[in-house]
Amino acid sequence: MPTLLVFLWLEWMGEENAFVARERPDEFADLNEVDDVEHWLASPKREELFGPMGMTARTFRDMQGSNRVGLIAEVPDISVWEQALQSAEAADAMKYDDVRAETIVGMVEG
Asked: pLDDT, tens digit, for every residue of 28-38?
């Protein structure tokens, strides 16, 4: 009989003073180039777009100082990420952040 493993993510719920178990979110890596790295890093657009959809993102920059940047996003489901990227809001955010769309490379775990 096959065994099904379910990973749970423990989240501290400060106001309730307890841990709440939930399924581990999917992770997605995105690499791309931007015109202005400092502007991209400081941009509020990621939180404005991803936050309401239950997504979080950690940002990264190229150690060599190029215009390459990246992020690792935790998403409830990879389909939510894909839908978000198809939205007009995502296009506006990428324009605001001077993302060079032709350089985008997406990666999933595994």
From this structure: 899 999 999 99
